[in-house]
Structure formats: structure tokens, C-alpha cells
Design a protein that fits this description.
Blueprint: E1 2-9, E2 19-28, H1 31-44, H2 58-63, H3 73-88, E3 95-102, H4 103-106, H5 111-132, E4 139-144, H6 149-161, E5 177-179, H7 185-203, H8 209-212, E6 218-219, E7 222-223, E8 226-229
Helix pairs in contact: 1-3, 5-6
Protein name: DUF3800 domain-containing protein
InterPro entries: DUF3800
């Protein structure tokens, strides 16, 4: 089973932001425990007594908001970089799927729907590729609890039964699951990945993006894991 942990960066309705990003980290089920432990060790630096209370989220970490206020910017940035490096150095089967949408260019269409269609279909195609190569696997998409929950579950059902523009979702075991990010280090890591991608496209800042740039799904030199609707 492959699990795709997803989160977004950028606000779809915010007129002051040009881009919306949805990204997911695909992990084979046995990789989840190892990577979660790596992230726990990073969180432990900031509150050894209450490690689960330290949530790794890009925007508050960068801005020093909430629980991050007492810590230096250098320490906060190092934590983001170390979390992304944990993914970058992890098993080669762990890979990123993401869609970057320029909201003005796709208007009046919903950037969330466009991004989800791209990410889910590319994840599905990846699973189909594994199957073709003799490794039959099913997948589940896991999101942070968000205002998009009902819409995304409906979209997945439609894609599986009516199809999207490239066909049907054939390799997913269930409609998306939604978790509280506090309960999942991998949802938090997906947030950091989306934040890194968002800063790259929205602000031209590749400080974090360059760490994960080689982890987008690719085959034979073709990068399938990053969609740009710019």
C-alpha cells in the first residue's frame, strides 16, 4: 500500500497571492514509521517534554508565530531544512506529487479542483506504472482536515466512477481520508513540502525547494510529479 499525504500552501480565495499549491508525499507503508521518527527528533529540540505538541508547519515556523515565537529564526529555518532533508535522503520509493496553479490564469475555474485532479491522477498513474512493472500496489490519499474535505471526497468519487479528463482513478482503495495534522507527522511534512514549493513560485525563493527538487516522481528522465499550471 502506498500512502499519499497531502496538504496545500497558499489560499485559493486570497487576491494577494498569485499561486495555489497542492502537494503530496507518496510513501510505501513501511516507510511511514521511519520518517515519522526522524521528524519527532527534530520536534524534540523545541520541547523534549511534549514532543507531540510541536507541530511542524512552514508558515508559523518561518514567521515565528505561536509556539515558535521563543526560538531564533536560524533555529526555526534549520528545523524546516532538516525535515525536508529527512525526506530527501529517505528511501528512493518516496516521492513527491505536486501541482502549482497560477490562480489568475485558470480563472474562473477552481484552483483547488484543478490541483487535486492533477495530483490524484498522477499518483494513480504512478501506481499503474508500478503494477505494469510487476509491483501491484493500491493507494490512499490522506489530507489534513480542511474546508475542502467534502468537495475533495466528492471529486474522488466522481473521478473513480465518471472519470477525469485523462480517464478513471483505478488504483485507489478508498476516497481521501482526513486527519488532524497534529496526529500525523507526515501531514506536517506535506505542509513543509507545499510551503517550500509555494515560496519558490510565489517569491522566487528556492532556499527550501532546492532540497526536495530531485524527489518529484520521475521515470526515464521525465518528471511526472510536478504539474505547473502557470
Amino acid at each position: 500500500m502506498h500512502l499519499l499525504y497531502c496538504d496545500e500552501s497558499g489560499s485559493a480565495p486570497d487576491p494577494n497571492q498569485n499561486h495555489f499549491v497542492l502537494s503530496g508525499i507518496s510513501l510505501f507503508e513501511r516507510q511511514v514509521f521511519w520518517l515519522s521518527n526522524e521528524l519527532d527528533r527534530i520536534a524534540e529540540r523545541f520541547d523534549p517534554a511534549e514532543i507531540p505538541d510541536v507541530e511542524l508547519h512552514g508558515s508559523p515556523m518561518m514567521g515565528g508565530r505561536g509556539i515558535w515565537q521563543p526560538f531564533t529564526k536560524a533555529d526555526r529555518i534549520k528545523a524546516i531544512e532538516d525535515a525536508l532533508h529527512a525526506l530527501a535522503k529517505s528511501h528512493p520509493s518516496n516521492r513527491i506529487f505536486a501541482c502549482v496553479v497560477n490562480k489568475a490564469k485558470v480563472s474562473p475555474f477552481d484552483p483547488v479542483e484543478i490541483a487535486f485532479e492533477q495530483v490524484s491522477s498522477r499518483f494513480d498513474h504512478y501506481l499503474a506504472r508500478l503494477h505494469k512493472n510487476g509491483d501491484p500496489q493500491r493507494g490512499i490519499i490522506i489530507f489534513d482536515k480542511s474546508t475542502y474535505e467534502t468537495a475533495l471526497q466528492g471529486l474522488t468519487t466522481n473521478f473513480r466512477t465518471l472519470g477525469h479528463r485523462w480517464g478513471l482513478l483505478r488504483n485507489l482503495s478508498e476516497v481521501p481520508l482526513f486527519l488532524n495534522s497534529k496526529a500525523s507527522r507526515l501531514i506536517q511534512l506535506a505542509d513543509l513540502v507545499s510551503y517550500a514549493i509555494f515560496r519558490h513560485y510565489e517569491r522566487g525563493d528556492d532556499q527550501f525547494f532546492k532540497i526536495i527538487a530531485d524527489r518529484f516522481d520521475q521515470e526515464a528522465g521525465v518528471r511526472h510529479g510536478l504539474c505547473e499550471r502557470l
